[in-house]
Amino acid sequence: MVQKQVLNLNRVRRLPKSDWSWVDRRFLRQFASRLTGDAVYLYFTLVAVSDKNGLSYYSDNSLALMIRTSLQALSKARQELLHHDLIAYQAPLVQVLSLPFDPHHQPRLAPNDSSKSSADANELQSLIAALAQKSSISRLDSHS
Q1: How many CA atoms lie within 13 A of 72 on its CB side?
Q2: Parallel, antiparallel or unpaired: strands 87-90 and 55-56
């Protein structure tokens, strides 16, 4: 076992009296390896800029500049965090959520998120239709 000792006594981190944040270690153990680099970076940024309730309201342009990514990549990273139930989002607010105890937990839609549920339903219908079409094409190919 490694015995720890402070390497630089002049630079030991201290909690500031205000404006501080923390990261639950379970994020690294249970979630980080399932996310893209942009999503991990966005999560750490949101943790760093959020208030005591996990809330922040940076614009997409500001966040994209902060994490040095495009608006499209930022949107995909945010969708990953939403999918893993790590954040809640209602523009312009983002809330970093307490980590779910089960890393396989799937989020439920918020009651006021009907626009998302209809978009999800449309996306699901499109996916099913594409799979059905692919399945019928492959059946035709196998009979040729």
Answers
A1: 0
A2: unpaired
Q: What is the rounded CA–CA span in Å between residue 50 and residue 59?
A: 13
Q: What's the CATH number of domain 1-101, 1.10.10.10, 1.10.8.60, 1.10.1040.10, 3.30.2350.10? A: 1.10.10.10
Break the chain into its structural domains and give their ranges: 1-101, 111-144
pTM of the model: 0.67
Nearest to 21 by CA among 59, 58, 49: 49
Q: From its phi and psi, is residue 19 left (phi > 0), alpha (psi between -120 and 50) or beta?
A: left
pLDDT at 80: 97
- Please, what is the average pLDDT of the chain? 81
Question: DSSP states of 98-130 as a string?
Answer: PPPSSTT--PPPPTT-HHHHHHHHHHHHHHHHH
For residues 100 and 69, is the Cβ–Cβ distance under 8 A? no
| pLDDT tens digit sequence for 133-144 | 655 554 445 454
- Answer whether residue 49 shows pLDDT above 70: yes
**Taking residues 54-75, what's their average pLDDT?**
96
